[in-house]
Specification:
five-stranded parallel sheet; alpha/beta; two-stranded parallel sheet
Length: 368
């Protein structure tokens, strides 16, 4: 197994995700028996939601029982600008199967050009039933749809499209979100119709197992494994980044001193795998919670032990309610957590990167 930061690792035997993959597979196959189950999976940036969804597609395609189930994947953060863009992949997927006659595809295309999304979904449902096909629509990063509302026909919101799909008989649905709150905000009461599952970070044992499979023949001592878990808190993206950086250094044995040297050196090199990967993570995180300067300063204060909203607000000269909202968002996306004495930072590797990337916000000699 090779490290694949920012490129989802796809396998029908995806490590450490067997339970959730098996459940999603059973739910998907139930559509063929007339039992429609819709799912929401959620978890922090870098936890592996996309890997799970793409691996599910591979499982469906390799299963003889699912030959009449067409999985359709849509990355809502990259490919959706209008309501019709949610449904373009349907046309491509159904055309690829060859199970729907050519004149029907032309009829569907004409409806798509008219932008009558409700009519289109209903027609797709009818034609799927006529062709004895079921389709599984997999929507990744669904929270990104809310930023595109100004491009959409105000009579039909993202929630309206999802509701129309939920009411269909032949179209199953799986959605991913960064946080459950985002799903609640977008879907409202509709969320009660979904089975909701959280994708957790890896525990210490699984973190060690993943590192062993990524680093192959490199010998790494127990202290280093312990520190990597403290730095990453089991976030697969950060584990992959660290493993890729270690492999690029061509070392054979990793002690805690060697590991510290590799990490410090990488964070000081703007074009290292680790530095560039954490920069991408930072920008993706900003898309979710927004407020670049606020996040950096807030995390700095928390890393120094100032952990209550009121104390942070006094230090920053901002209203406590304003700070509390940012803390809430960072907890939702799993960067912060509640500790015994206030909020604590989960992603210590991210904090180390911030201290290098924005040194003016950190005191001289600061060591997160």
């Amino acid at each position: 197994m090779k490290p694949t930061p920012w490129k989802p690792y796809v396998s029908i035997n995806l490590p450490f995700r067997k339970n959730i993959l098996d459940e999603l597979m059973r739910g998907s196959l139930s559509l063929l028996r007339g039992l429609k189950l819709s799912y929401i999976i959620y978890g922090p940036l870098g936890v592996g939601k996309t890997s799970i969804l793409l691996s599910l597609i591979e499982m469906i395609r390799s299963n003889a029982k699912s030959s009449t189930l067409v999985p359709i994947y849509v990355d809502c953060s990259r490919h959706v600008l209008t309501p019709g863009d949610l449904l373009n992949p349907f046309l491509a997927a159904l055309s690829y199967t060859g199970r729907i006659e050519y004149h029907v595809m032309g009829e569907i295309a004409r409806i798509m050009s008219s932008k009558d999304v409700v009519h289109l979904i209903r027609m797709l449902n009818e034609k799927l039933i006529d062709a004895n096909i079921k389709s599984l629509l997999i929507l990744d990063h669904v929270e990104e749809l809310k930023h595109l509302s100004r491009y959409w026909d105000m009579r039909l919101t993202p929630k309206g499209i999802i509701e129309e799909i939920m009411n269909s008989d032949a179209i199953g649905l799986i959605c991913s979100f960064t946080s459950l709150n985002e799903a609640n905000n977008m879907f409202g009461g509709l969320i009660d119709l979904f089975i909701v599952r959280k994708v957790d970070r890896l525990n210490k044992h699984d973190t060690t197992q993943l590192l062993s499979s990524l680093l192959k023949d490199i010998v790494i001592d127990d202290d280093s494994l312990e520190w990597i878990y403290e730095l990453t808190r089991g976030l697969p993206l950060h584990i992959h980044l660290l493993a890729a950086e270690i492999l690029s250094r061509e070392v054979k044995n990793i002690s805690i001193d060697v590991l510290r040297e590799i990490i410090n050196s990488a964070l000081n090199e703007p074009h290292s795998i680790l530095h560039m990967g954490l920069r991408i993570y930072h920008h993706e995180l900003l898309k979710v919670i927004r407020g670049r300067n606020m996040i950096v300063k807030l995390l700095l204060l928390i890393s120094k032990g100032i952990s209550s909203a009121s104390s942070i607000a006094r230090s920053m000269g901002r209203p406590a309610q304003y700070i509390a909202e940012y803390i809430r968002r960072l907890i939702e996306v799993d960067v912060l957590a509640h500790g015994e004495r206030g909020v604590i930072i989960k992603d210590l590797l991210y904090i180390k990167w911030l201290s290098k990337e924005f040194p003016s916000n950190f005191p001289l000699g600061f060591q997160p």
